[in-house]
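User: My advisor, Dr. K., asked me to get a structural model of this assembly before our group meeting. I'm new to this, so sorry if the format is off. These are the inputs:
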Amino acid sequence: MEQRTERQTSMAILAKSSLSHLEQRIETLGELPQYTFLRSPEIGLTMVRGRAGGTGEAFNLGEMTITRCVVRIEDFTGFGYVGGRSKRHAELAAVCDGLLQTEAWKPKIYSQIIQPLQTILQQQQAKQQRQTEATKVDFFTMLRGE
Amino acid sequence: MAYVAVKGGERAIQNAEALLQAMRRGDNNIPELSLEQIKQQLSLAVNRVMAEGSLYDRDLAALAIKQSWGDLVEAIFLLRAYRTTLPRLYYSKPLDTAQMQLQRRISSIFKDVPGGQKLGATYDYIHRLLDFKLAAEDGEYVAPETDNVRANGHSSSRAIDTLGEEGLIQPETTSTGDRSFAPTDEPFDITRQSLTTPTNRDARLQNLARADEGFLLGLAYSTQRGYGTNHPFAGEIRVGDLEVIIEPEELGFEIAIADIQVTEVQMVNQFKGSKKLPPQFTRGYGLTFGYNERKAMSMALVDRALRAKEFGETIEGVAQDEEFVLYHSDNVEAQGFVQHLKLPHYIDFQAELNLVRQMRQEQVDRNNHDQAVKQFSPPSSSCSKI
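Assistant: The format is fine. Below is the predicted structure of the whole assembly, which you can bring to the meeting.
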């Protein structure tokens, strides 16, 4: 998945963020519009696949839990797909995806949910990267017989 | 085999379960373990349970470890049982391990790999001495960090790709190019199809990915000691996070649902060549959920051993015998069949007991008969020997 649309990026951020962070951000929105479930939050499995040698034939590596949810909000359909078993997480992700499609809510969801969550994820990733990088080996060669 | 319906054990069984629960909890004055503690402080146990339980879910794995009183094979069994209660909704796109957010990456064949050697969190260079400071329970440790971080963009390209550029290693490509998943083109699934030998590599890799670590470790070791040797090098070992991407039909486009941690091992093996193939290096591949390095390395060695037929090698070690390896690698199946011996076999055993008694009696009767014959017959029968 090289080129991502705005929506794909947002959905990934909603899925990868922790539920507590997502809930904190949602609280800043105040009252949300009414919505109904087109598909109530449902827990299931995704079979994760790999490739032999990283680039060869595909094989089934093992499963992971996933929770999905579809909501109807302001005449738009919002989808939530999140790893793990949190129904609340899938529901909130679907609501945000739905609201991102509305003209009225889109700027607010971006500035108060997506961007702050993206910043948190990037910070976590950067911290982990700095830790890994600190264990990088600097080889040097000893000169002999000078 | 007959199982006897035994009555009268009901109260004993209930009490045995209650006793187990109490013993598992231990002294009530000691704080109870939380799942969060298990997830964070017994993380490698969680990883093993997820890999062999074949289900990536840290919360469930931690719960299973708590419930199983620390017995990881039991925890794996619990996770496998749980997964059968959930519907399978999607298949992911194959993980692109080149895109890994690295937490560790080493190569033992090239000193200078693109992006460098990053040791990550490892026991490799630590003396195996007990650290009594840990017993004091007040440790706070700070992870060192560096600001000298290069953009991760190309740093996770594979170390062994340089061998590929020279054509010195067997290429690893899809037979149909960059295939998208037409239903007919699905990889084998040992959870849905019954495994029969001979198999292909997709079925083997799935089996090995969830195989018992101890079993694979022993087999991998046997190949190194000469039972089907194939002279391995650790071409590259990497641990890190990868995006899981699905494409739900109802949505119509690809989305990432989570980052999961995996360990990938690329073993490079010497190969003298055959009538069809020139001398080159060949590969063994290991991929597991979580940070699971010993398991992933063992998997890669056994994967290579099982490719013997593909490379026209003679099969001389058990690790090369796919029927033996694949049918005995699963610890849920193995522990079930071994431990079923604890179930009442009273009738079975009674029959065996009667049989042994009967055979004994027959032997005694036969001996008595033979002696009687010897006593009353002339000794001429032994004359012919002289």
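One thing worth pointing out at the meeting: Residues 10-83 of chain B form one domain.

User: Perfect, thanks a lot.
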